[in-house]
Amino acid sequence: xxxxxxxxxxxxxxxxxxxxxxxxxxxxxxxxxxxxxxxxxxxxxxxxxxxxxxxxxxxxxxxxxxxxxxxxxxxxxxxxxxxxxxxxxxxxxxxxxxxxxxxxxxxxxxxxxxxxxxxxxxxxxxxxxxxxxxxxxxxxxxxxxxxxxxxxxxxxxxxxxxxxxxxxxxxxxxxxxxxxxxxxxxxxxxxxxxxxxxxxxxxxxxxxxxxxxxxxxxxxxxxxxxxxxxxxxxxxxxxxxxxxxxxxxxxxxxxxxxxxxxxxxxxxxxxxxxxxxxxxxxxxxxxxxxxxxxxxxxxxxxxxxxxxxxxxxxxxxxxxxxxxxxxxxxxxxxxxxxxx
Length: 340
What we know:
This protein is an alpha/beta fold. The protein folds into three domains: about 1-65, Winged helix-like DNA-binding domain superfamily/Winged helix DNA-binding domain (Arc Repressor Mutant, subunit A), CATH 1.10.10.10; about 85-240, Rossmann fold (3-Layer(aba) Sandwich), CATH 3.40.50.300; about 245-340. Helices cover about 45% and strands about 15% of the residues. The chain is built from 14 helices and twelve strands. The chain has helices at about 1-15, 20-30, 30-45, 85-95, 110-120, 135-140, 155-165, 175-185, 225-230, 245-255, 260-275, 285-295, 300-310, 320-335, and strands at about 20, 50, 55-60, 100, 125-130, 140-145, 150-155, 165-170, 190-195, 200, 205-210, 235-240. The strands form four sheets. Strands 5-8-11-4-12 form a five-stranded parallel sheet, sandwiched between helices. It has a three-stranded antiparallel sheet with strand order 1-3-2. It has a two-stranded antiparallel sheet with strand order 6-7. Helix 4 (about 85-95) packs across helix 5.
């Protein structure tokens, strides 16, 4: 029974690098005494170690999953590096320089980081920021196990630091101030976070990239970052929307079948790029271009695809805005009913 439980524990640590006692108890359905006894044996052999009060981490597990099998390492990322963002990010990683990506939604900021993580074979933790993102969402919080014992449940920022991977803070400039303070702490030259009497330090090779959206009406909730936070990202890279030809090539990378409808797709991309210059309350991104291509390549009639992707979104602002958007689109592609 003891050997069987040890084998099960080894499999757990092959699957995931860190476990709390409560997680293991739930997974293995054994008593606390049995579990702690076997954890101690694995620690004595150097296969795992205890971190903090209640967390165990893999150190030297036989047959532990390789980097290529790590689910946090992106795979098969499709990205057209037309702005040279990936190559510059790779250079910054090599030099240990944190990077701030600046650009409107849908310009490929996240995909660029995912492509870099794939190339480097580094685990990537993406932290999607919002108006409600607080300190405990990124560093973790105190929790209790099934026996009522307190332990610190680590959040994605600390997990990324301990893995020595890549942390991507998506839309950093809408995060709450208390969370930004923790980001500032982690990016200090010491690269550590102190919480609940514990110090969590970044493993060698840890790297941080963040993105921010412009301070305009299309990106509600964005705030000006302090000079202190901006200085933690010494390299800033600006991303923009591509020209028509490049955007078509990006779409074709994602939907090769759209080549059969190239003239129609190029017309639609021209219309989309025109919409981006208007005062509409929402403007389509490259995501919408790709969605249109997928629908049209799946034999959805072009005018129906346009309605689904480019027009119906304005229903939330009422009939006046729907008509305005329709007229703007039709000024570029003609009447919808005959756009087939």
